[in-house]
């Protein structure tokens, strides 16, 4: 008998189910219980950088919007630093870089306000284009899905991004790039996430 | 500058696959292309941090956190406790653990839940806490009831509490469900059966822990949660990192 490699096993994931809002955003489930819900203010009041809005839909394999999904957002500040001890340095007071995004139960539309992140360090001295990490959970999703959202108006940085370039199928890279428009003078990015079917979004094993 | 330690690869044969035919909702919500494997960057090894300013001390007491003054939730009073560890068996301190569940009758406080069991006016069904320096957490609550759900015509969920855990990096983010020792519905449940191995299923079943009960007050179950492990920072004379 060889010796045992004595690691613990990661706890198996289970679907967040249809009532994830009760636990993570009870206001959306229809009741107030906590003095403050977490993840509502991603950038805080004084963060540098361009204020943006991001909106979209999560669409299932039948082409229907997923109306009970919850997304979590994780991003760097405009200087490319994360609000974390290993994030590259201090960030602005109130900048958390993390948010929770709830869909409208009737339409499936979701949206959040933040600032546009800066470039972040990649591996081996490379530079990553500005991007937002997303984690998607819902009924029917057995383990949370990870993806990234990049910005249409960062074409030059996107072309050099080591993660986008890792995707062998060049025609799938576009599934990670949000389109930019303006509304009332503010930048609005549109990002559709397709769980399955034509134009399926690239998801990552991170 | 030393290279930050990477998280261990997630064991995808241990975790449930995206497509699980008998859990019907997964059929149209599962990606068909392979996940693209990324080596860790700063985007993955960092994650949100939380402090005691974010939560209220009573948030982990679901018997009282939604109850009217002097009243309490109805049901079998339980303590759910355990530790958050990583795959190296090191405690994960100061991490947010959030829980949600049905009430003792199996009904959720959610506008979309139409099950005919009654709402408990004194039970919200959610709690949250931050692990201590040893990774320890506990909740006080009532044991949730089993309830029917629309998958096959006659499916019933075993009693369960949903748990959401962060860890220190975004790669560790995890949502799971804790079941209870002795529940005959566990092996029947299509959601439980998304997990490929019996060993994996067993790891989601909390054990009755009589030593942690409060006599004449609450019964206790112990449930440890394991997040992904991580190499230490690489040193030239210890390439494996640990």
UniProtKB/TrEMBL annotation, chain A:
Gene Ontology terms, MF aspect: protocatechuate 3,4-dioxygenase activity
Database matches in Pfam families: Dioxygenase_C (PF00775)
EC number: 1.13.11.3
Intradiol ring-cleavage dioxygenases domain mapped to chain residues: 54-82
Superkingdom to which the source organism belongs: Bacteria
Record SUPFAM superfamilies: Aromatic compound dioxygenase
Assigned keywords, A-Z: Dioxygenase, Oxidoreductase
Keyword Thylakoid: no
InterPro entries: Intradiol_dOase_C, Intradiol_dOase_core, Intradiol_RC_Dioxygenase, Protocat_dOase_a
Keyword Oxidoreductase tagged: yes
First-tier enzyme category under EC: oxidoreductase
Family: Belongs to the intradiol ring-cleavage dioxygenase family.
Xref: PANTHER family: DIOXYGENASE, PUTATIVE (AFU_ORTHOLOGUE AFUA_2G02910)-RELATED, PROTOCATECHUATE 3,4-DIOXYGENASE ALPHA CHAIN
Protein name: Protocatechuate 3,4-dioxygenase subunit alpha
Organism: Tropicibacter oceani
TrEMBL record, chain B:
Signal peptide residues on this chain, from the entry's feature table: none
Stated family: Belongs to the intradiol ring-cleavage dioxygenase family.
Superkingdom to which the source organism belongs: Bacteria
A molecular-function term among this protein's GO annotations: protocatechuate 3,4-dioxygenase activity
EC code(s) of this entry: 1.13.11.3
Family matches, as InterPro entries: Intradiol_dOase_C (IPR000627), Intradiol_dOase_core (IPR015889), Intradiol_RC_Dioxygenase (IPR050770), PCDO_beta_N (IPR024756), Protocat_dOase_b (IPR012785)
Record-annotated Intradiol ring-cleavage dioxygenases domain positions: 45-229
Keyword Cell membrane: no
Pfam families reported for this sequence: Dioxygenase_C, PCDO_beta_N
Domain Protocatechuate 3,4-dioxygenase beta subunit N-terminal: 8-41
Keywords assigned: Dioxygenase, Oxidoreductase
Name recorded for this polypeptide: Protocatechuate 3,4-dioxygenase subunit beta
């Amino acid at each position: 008998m060889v010796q045992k490699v004595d690691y613990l096993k990661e706890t198996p994931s289970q679907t967040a189910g249809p009532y994830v809002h009760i636990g993570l955003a009870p206001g959306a489930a229809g009741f107030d219980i906590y003095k403050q819900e977490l993840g509502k203010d991603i950038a805080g009041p004084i963060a540098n950088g361009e204020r943006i809005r991001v909106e979209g839909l999560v669409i299932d394999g039948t082409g229907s919007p997923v109306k009970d999904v919850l997304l979590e957002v994780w991003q760097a500040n405009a200087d490319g630093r994360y609000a974390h001890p290993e994030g590259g340095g201090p960030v602005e007071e109130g900048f958390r870089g993390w948010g929770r995004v709830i869909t409208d139960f009737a339409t499936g539309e979701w949206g959040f306000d933040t600032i546009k992140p800066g470039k972040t360090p990649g591996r081996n001295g490379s530079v990553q284009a500005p991007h937002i990490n997303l984690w998607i959970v819902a009924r029917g999703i057995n383990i949370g899905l990870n993806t990234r959202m990049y910005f249409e108006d960062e074409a030059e940085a996107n072309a050099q991004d080591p993660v986008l370039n890792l995707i062998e199928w060049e025609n799938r890279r576009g599934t990670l790039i949000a389109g930019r428009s303006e509304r009332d003078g503010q930048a609005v990015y549109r990002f559709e996430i397709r769980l399955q079917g034509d134009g399926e979004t690239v998801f990552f094993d991170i | 500058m030393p290279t930050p330690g990477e998280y261990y690869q997630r064991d995808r044969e241990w975790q449930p696959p995206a497509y699980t035919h008998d859990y019907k909702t997964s059929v149209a919500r599962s990606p068909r292309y392979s996940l693209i494997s990324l080596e860790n960057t700063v985007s993955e090894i960092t994650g949100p941090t939380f402090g005691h300013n974010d939560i209220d001390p009573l948030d982990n007491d679901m018997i009282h956190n939604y109850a009217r003054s002097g009243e309490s939730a109805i049901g079998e009073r339980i303590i759910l406790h355990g530790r958050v560890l990583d795959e190296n068996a090191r405690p994960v301190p100061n991490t947010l653990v959030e829980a949600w569940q049905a009430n003792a009758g199996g009904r959720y406080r959610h506008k979309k839940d139409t099950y005919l069991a009654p709402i408990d006016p004194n039970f919200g069904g959610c709690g949250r806490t931050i692990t201590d320096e040893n990774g320890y957490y506990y909740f006080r609550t009532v044991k949730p009831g089993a309830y029917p759900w629309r998958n096959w015509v006659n499916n019933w969920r075993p009693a369960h509490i949903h748990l959401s855990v962060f860890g220190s990096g975004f790669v560790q983010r995890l949502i799971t469900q804790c079941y209870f020792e002795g529940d005959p519905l566990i092996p029947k449940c299509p959601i439980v059966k998304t997990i490929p191995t019996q060993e994996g299923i067993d790891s989601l079943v909390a054990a009755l822990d009589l030593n942690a009960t409060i006599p004449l007050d609450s019964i206790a179950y112990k449930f440890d949660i394991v997040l992904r492990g991580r190499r230490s920072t690489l040193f030239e004379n210890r390439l494996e990192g640990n």
